[in-house]
């Protein structure tokens, strides 16, 4: 933390202080007694920015601060709408680019604490990005961080506001927000694989059998999430509810350490569920030690209340109730806090305290600060991963999650984990389950989950054959994507760009980017527009609206080419998902390892390359667990595609000991035609390189396809469609005989087809 700003950034009077942190970020404080705060807060950890250029115009009653990007006006006295306002320079809005104190906020929204009990959309808090060019964070009630690493409340009656006047420079706004509040830490590599989670009363035998079944079915998982029944829940009535607990249920898990070691041997991290609200009671294994630490007579059996406003309780809570489990093999904790935002210390949110101290504690021995908990306000990105709550099983819930996840980026919160497939209520729906998994693979964290019900599980074999195959295919794909995901993990940490970005962050001045709320960038190379509605039962495909920016785009799976700078409807069966790679995209992959949960730096590497443009992509690797990367223990492999020359240059730099000494590489060029090991269905040329050298150049003997396989795809669509055979024959004949596109379009229009069928044909036949 570097909370004290540089003196040259400060403009101060008897009751006011303005700190010009950047030419676009200004801290605005008011205190009647003229006492201002230089300590860190729950939100703001670093105010030591380089001082930007700015001018001050001042007399006895008025003050103006003018930077390159904003103009602040202040009539000296208490902050009020008529005394304090700021204009952002630039033509962002005809009427709404002026911030007035306590005025309306018109941001692109941020995120919400939880999706508990939400069926569809819910109200979101404000973010720091706005089409109008400005936003604010009011830090006036945020608690202060003290020198002894605790917190204390702010004084009443003060104002402490951060003004973000970034116009449409959304990326710079995010960068400066992360500088102010602290970066997102690196996630462990295993956290980017599939998580298995189910609220179910497993015992050791059943859990191991399930993990073996997953392996035999070739469904990989890298994180084991064990819900509340890991601990004793059937307790004497005198102690109250069994939701809170810290002692293993030995009837279910006779030797917990043995069980945890088995999961580790299977390649999995482990997290256990916590409901800490009821404190520590006399039936717990560690009660005596906890009581002695808290000065309670163990013989009394008195409950030790949960109290995160008590420093002594916090220390004992970790040392007595958590560290022994971590020594046995628990990697991190699922903090399932549901009891609101009040505590003994007025205004202090227990959830924020739990998140903050759990992250600090788990990282005490050089580990990464990984937790799993709900969002607790701006700055929560420092404590990943986010638990979005108990999702209702419905199409409405699925339809809201892509927007909800992408929009959270507007407050820097990039690592949401949802109950993929839904948690409770609703009904069994094979199609919904499969679509949700397909979305989950392209969400920040892929965690299946379901409630305590004999019938409500997310094992793929519980569903019909088509849904089962789709779910398995996408779950395997998630692990194949880990090299790409881990690189974006580093990008989030080092460059302040989360994995999932709303379209307008990359295209802020294109109005079309604001009209596709469920579409998002998935890292630097891909765009995703997930299917979130039921399919057309006659066509066996479902559609979604997609806006493709300027340039060429290729279907990730088939290589089908699309011309950008337009909006279209695209259609996919249950085995597909609308994912588009930009021209020149480079996506590193781990080849699928059958019947394995492998997530480490692979000995075999595949690089998926798309045609049409030159590009550079740098894959990032480290040990995937420790914080040694902070001192340079990392490896970067840079792939430079020169499309005109049809070459791919590869160069490694950094610590080569982090990866297998004999790593092999295969280049997959998709969306092309070529000679040799060529897959026509995916339009992919396989180019085996053999052992990867520290520097080498690969020749790509390929040409762009111009969608030469479009008729094959048209045939498959029509062959499966439940429509009249005469219509199928006519449509196929039209596509194969018409030489002029205009004639085909007129004939198609004259048939007055159903909208989905017409749009599906247009997608296939038009570039």
UniProtKB/TrEMBL annotation:
InterPro entries: DUF5110, GH, Glyco_hydro_31_C, Glyco_hydro_31_TIM, Glyco_hydro_b. The keyword Endoplasmic reticulum does not apply. Residues 184-488 form the Glycoside hydrolase family 31 TIM barrel domain. Residues 604-671 form the DUF5110 domain. Pfam families: DUF5110, Glyco_hydro_31_2nd, Glyco_hydro_31_3rd. Residues 497-587 form the Glycosyl hydrolase family 31 C-terminal domain. It comes from the Bacteria. Keywords: Glycosidase, Hydrolase. Belongs to the glycosyl hydrolase 31 family. This is DUF5110 domain-containing protein. It comes from Exiguobacterium profundum. The lineage of its organism: Bacteria, Bacillati, Bacillota, Bacilli, Bacillales.
């Amino acid at each position: 933390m570097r909370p004290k700003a540089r003196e040259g950034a400060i403009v101060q009077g008897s009751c006011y202080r303005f700190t010009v942190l950047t030419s676009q970020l200004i801290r605005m404080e008011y205190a009647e007694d003229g006492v201002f705060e230089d300590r860190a807060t729950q939100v703001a950890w670093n105010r030591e920015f380089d001082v930007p250029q700015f001018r001050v115009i001042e007399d006895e009653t008025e003050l103006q601060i003018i930077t390159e990007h904003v103009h602040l006006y202040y009539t000296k006295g208490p902050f009020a709408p008529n005394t304090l306002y700021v204009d952002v320079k630039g033509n962002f809005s005809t009427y709404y680019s002026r911030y007035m104190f306590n005025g309306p906020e018109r941001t692109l929204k941020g995120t919400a604490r939880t999706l508990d009990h939400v069926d569809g959309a819910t109200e979101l808090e404000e973010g720091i990005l706005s089409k109008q060019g400005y936003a604010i964070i009011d830090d006036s009630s945020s608690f202060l961080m003290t020198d002894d690493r605790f917190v204390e409340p702010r004084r009443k009656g003060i104002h402490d506001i951060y003004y973000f006047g970034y116009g449409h420079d959304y990326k710079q706004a995010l960068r400066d927000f992360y500088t102010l509040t602290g970066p997102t830490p690196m996630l462990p590599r295993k956290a980017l694989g599939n998580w298995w989670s189910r609220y179910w009363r497993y015992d050791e035998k059943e859990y191991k059998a399930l993990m073996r079944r997953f392996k035999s079915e070739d469904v990989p998982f890298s994180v084991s999430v064990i819900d509340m029944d890991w601990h004793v829940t059937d307790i004497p009535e005198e102690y109250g509810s069994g939701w809170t607990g810290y002692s293993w249920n030995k009837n279910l898990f006779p030797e917990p350490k043995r069980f945890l070691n088995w999961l580790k041997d299977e390649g999995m991290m482990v997290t256990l569920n916590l409901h800490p609200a009821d404190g520590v009671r006399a039936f717990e294994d560690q009660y005596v030690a906890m009581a002695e630490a808290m000065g309670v007579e163990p013989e009394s059996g008195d409950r030790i209340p949960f109290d995160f406003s008590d420093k002594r309780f916090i220390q004992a809570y970790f040392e007595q109730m958590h560290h022994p489990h971590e020594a046995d093999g628990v990697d991190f904790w699922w903090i399932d806090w549901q009891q609101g935002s009040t505590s003994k210390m007025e205004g202090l949110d227990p959830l924020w305290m739990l998140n903050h101290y759990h992250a600090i504690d788990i990282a005490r021995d050089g580990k990464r600060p990984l937790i799993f908990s709900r969002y607790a306000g701006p700055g929560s990105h420092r404590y990943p991963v986010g638990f979005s709550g108990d999702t209702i099983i419905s199409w409405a819930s699925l339809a809201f999650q892509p927007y909800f996840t992408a929009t959270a980026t507007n407050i820097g919160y990039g690592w949401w984990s949802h109950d993929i497939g839904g948690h409770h209520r609703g009904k069994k729906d094979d199609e919904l389950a499969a679509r949700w998994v397909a979305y989950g693979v392209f969400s920040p964290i892929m965690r299946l989950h379901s409630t305590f019900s004999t019938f409500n599980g997310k094992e793929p074999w519980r569903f019909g054959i088509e849904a089962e195959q789709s779910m398995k295919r996408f779950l395997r794909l998630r692990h194949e994507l880990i090299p790409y995901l881990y690189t974006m993990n580093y990008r989030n940490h080092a460059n302040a760009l989360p994995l999932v970005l709303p379209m307008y962050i990359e295209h802020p001045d294109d109005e079309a980017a604001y009209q596709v709320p469920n579409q998002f960038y998935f890292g630097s190379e891909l765009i995703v527009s997930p299917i979130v509605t039921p399919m057309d039962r006659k066509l066996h495909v479902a559609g979604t609206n997609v806006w493709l920016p300027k340039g060429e785009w290729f279907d990730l799976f088939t290589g089908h080419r699309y011309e950008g700078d337009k909006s279209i409807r695209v259609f996919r069966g249950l085995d597909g998902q609308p994912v588009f790679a930009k021209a020149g995209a480079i996506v590193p992959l781990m080849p699928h390892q059958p019947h394995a949960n492998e997530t480490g730096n692979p000995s075999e590497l595949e690089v998926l390359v798309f045609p049409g443009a030159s590009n550079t992509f740098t894959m990032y690797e480290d040990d995937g667990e420790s914080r040694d990367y902070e001192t340079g223990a990392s490896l970067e492999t840079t792939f430079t595609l020169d499309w005109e020359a049809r070459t791919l240059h590869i160069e490694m730099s950094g610590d080569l000991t982090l990866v297998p000494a004999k790593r092999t590489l295969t280049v997959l060029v998709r969306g092309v035609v070529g000679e040799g090991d060529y897959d026509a269905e995916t339009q992919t040329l396989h180019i085996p390189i053999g052992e990867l050298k520290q520097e080498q150049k690969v020749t790509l003997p390929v040409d762009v396809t111009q969608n030469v396989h479009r008729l094959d795809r048209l045939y498959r669509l029509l062959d499966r469609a439940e429509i009249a055979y005469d219509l199928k024959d006519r449509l196929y004949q039209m596509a194969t005989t018409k030489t002029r596109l205009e004639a085909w379009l007129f004939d198609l229009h004259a048939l007055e087809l159903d909208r989905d069928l017409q749009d599906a044909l247009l997608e296939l036949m038009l570039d």
